[in-house]
Amino acid sequence: MLGARLSIILAKKHWAIMTYQSSLLRTLEERGYIHQMTDAEGLDALAAKQVVPGYIGFDATAPSLHIGSLVQIMMLRRLQQTGHKPIVLMGGGTTRIGDPTGRDESRKMLSDETIADNIKGIFSIFSRLLKFGDGPTDAVMVNNQDWLGQLGYIQLLQEVGTHFTVNRMLSFDSVRLRLEREQPMTFLEFNYMILQGYDFRHLNKERGVRLQMGGSDQWGNIVNGMELTRRMDGKEVFGLTTPLLTTADGGKMGKTAAGAVWLNEDMLPSYDFWQYWRNCDDRDVGKFLRLFTDLPLDEIKRLETLEGAAINDAKVVLANEVTRLCRGEDAAVAAEATAQATFAGGGLGEDLPALEVASEGVRLGAALTELGFTASNGEAKRKIGEGAVKLDDVAMTDPAFLIEVASGETRKLSLGKKKHAILKGA
Question: Suppose 20 and one of 25, 99, 300, 421 were both cysteines; which one would form an S-S bond, judging by CB atoms 3.0 to 4.6 Å apart?
């Protein structure tokens, strides 16, 4: 095991200075996807001479993934764009356990029906960004419940458990940090890394998978799977991780004050999705264009050099390109038109979030909370007190103000300069 770890360390140093032969690693490097990699020279040589099947795993804990997962999905897209085969692994089995990485408490148990429904919902984003089929570079989606569900416990202990030491498992950050914080970890969760390692071995054996990719927090799990595959089958496989993705202000990608930025339309309106990218920090524009769009690198370099108010043009390009990929052309066009109508023209775009107001009206503070502009009525009261709330472009000061909207009419409610909604009379 020491030898394997040493080779990984040496590979990481070598990777930092080498020039890649393969379009796969050149593309990943140029666009900023690479953080850690095992045997960069070996993977580069392999990708230069043959189709490399590679996979990333996603647990089905919700009906949609959020944009924190988009960098991984785009990695699979880059894999396919450079002539290789993406494998989307849905964790129908591992979702029943829960990845302890970065968590302080056990994950809520989900029913089989809920997991199946979540997988159906999640597939929609992959179907937009990847080409599925039976060809050599066509994507496929697999479910680890199909093989993990068939493993007997004694079989798992005998065949797989002997290749893992408790000493090493306790050293993993996902376990060590949880124990240091004195947060309980169930034996069920402790087994997650064993099952994830088994996934890599199974996919290598059954589908010829040579590469597992993932976020930097998955490095230990990926290396475990590589080592298990080598020990059980004598096969050489590779691992690659992306950097921890944060925004320029240090925030976690995919999270906002209003909640997660979901990829699916039924979880987050396309206008709100578009606005997330349009409102990104100036310092993030170039990075996001490289990671989340297919724009040529020369065009990205031009856009990220824009200064002052002109950087907003680059943000509109970013918002349009990402929305087009994830939601479709119509959604991108409608979102930009709504933004222009709302901000440039001072009107009401049809794609804005909407709240139907009953004949008896709605209190100002309650309307902000119902729209999701504020997390609570207390927060709404604070925002109103700060002068940040306007009704039909008029500043409001009373949280208890009763908003009335006649049937068939509309009014505009705004929080700050970037959040706007339509109030519709019932």
Answer: 25
